Amino acid sequence: MQIAIFGGSFDPPHIGHQTIAKKIIKKLDIDLLLVVPAYLNPLKIQSFLDAKTRFKLIKKLFSKKEKIKVSNFEIKKNRVVYSVETIKHMINKYNPSKVYLIIGADNYKSFHLWERHEEIAKLVTLVVVARDGFKYEHHNDVKQLKVDINISSTEFRNTFNLKFIPKKIRKDVENIWHKKGKT
């Protein structure tokens, strides 16, 4: 069995996340894509949406998708969980022959700051999602996955343009946004 781990804040989930998941399934020889929303990104102070809300949104977005499972491993911990812990948990749970770790080009730039990044690099094959506007130094031991959608959760939170939110969760995100007093 070959797996890919696609973690992140998903704050909120957007069409870029949906497109990345589709590309992973299409381009990588995997049996299962594990989407793992973070309780809190270790390099951030807080999330805009709480962990349980983000988990519900991402679970709804990927429900009934073949080869995709949304994991609440990090959310259940109720604390910051470093990627190395998640990777080791998934290896123990699924006993895969190969593990891909999907990270954005923006996160790859700070990969050297990740907790036990050398160990992570030995456990997985890194797959860097490259998108317009994010340049990074490509290394031979890293696979690249090109995605042509130029959107980020930060950009969405700044503009609140609902066209970037998948239709399946658009109404949910709009309701949450209004409850938070945003217009």
Annotate the secondary structure layout.
Elements: E1 2-8, H1 15-27, E2 32-37, H2 51-62, E3 68-70, H3 73-77, H4 83-94, E4 98-104, H5 105-108, H6 117-123, E5 125-130, E6 143-146, H7 153-159, H8 167-179
Parallel strand pairs: 1-2, 1-4, 2-3, 4-5, 5-6
Helix pairs in contact: 4-6
Question: Could you please describe the fold and organization of this structure?
Answer:
By secondary structure, this protein is of the alpha/beta class. The chain has 8 helices and 6 strands; from the N terminus they run E-H-E-H-E-H-H-E-H-H-E-E-H-H. 40% of the residues lie in helices and 18% in strands. Strands 3-2-1-4-5-6 form a 6-stranded parallel sheet, with helices on both faces. Helix 4 packs parallel to helix 6. The longest helix has 13 residues. The protein starts with a strand and ends with a helix.
Summarize the structure.
The protein has eight helices and six strands.
State the shape.
Answer: globular
**Major sheet attributes:** 6 strands, parallel
**Total of helices:** 8
Beta strand %: 15-25%
Work out the radius of gyration.
16 Å
Strand neighbour order, sheet with most strands: 3-2-1-4-5-6
Task: Please identify the structural class as seen in this structure.
Answer: alpha/beta
SSE run = EHEHEHHEHHEEHH
Distance between the termini: 46 Å
Helix content: 25-40%
